[in-house]
Specification:
By secondary structure, the protein is mainly alpha-helical. The protein has one domain (3-93): Orthogonal Bundle (Arc Repressor Mutant, subunit A). The chain is built from four helices and three strands. The protein has a three-stranded antiparallel beta sheet with strand order 1-3-2. A hairpin with a 2-residue loop joins strand 2 and strand 3. Helix 2 crosses helix 3. The chain is globular and about 35 Å long. It starts with a helix and ends with a helix.
Length: 94
């Protein structure tokens, strides 16, 4: 199966470095790349292998971005709740 016929079958494909750049910006690290390879190995990220290289469909990257944004928003909410709880404790003490 050629790259172009595979692209038509599963949509546009990105290599792992491109995915790391989308998720972490131009300053992505090798740790970010290795983390993505582990996700591929553990079947947590949909991917296609061509020869020795792995490619990820754009729709899987979009799905991962949505999940990442969800967890980042949960972290912010958690931190806001902790801050408000600490503020309440301080106000009670005064």
């Amino acid at each position: 199966m050629t790259h172009s016929s595979l692209n038509n079958e599963v949509g546009q494909l990105m290599n792992i470095q491109q995915v790391a750049e989308v998720l972490h910006g131009k300053n992505f690290t090798q740790t970010d790349v290795h983390r993505l390879y582990r996700m591929v190995k553990n079947e947590q990220l949909d991917s296609v292998k061509m020869g020795r290289r792995w490619f990820v469909p754009v729709w899987a990257v979009e799905k991962l971005c949505k999940k990442k944004n969800f967890w980042e928003s949960q972290r912010v909410v958690k931190n806001d709740n902790e801050t408000s709880a600490i503020t309440s404790e301080i106000n009670r003490g005064n």
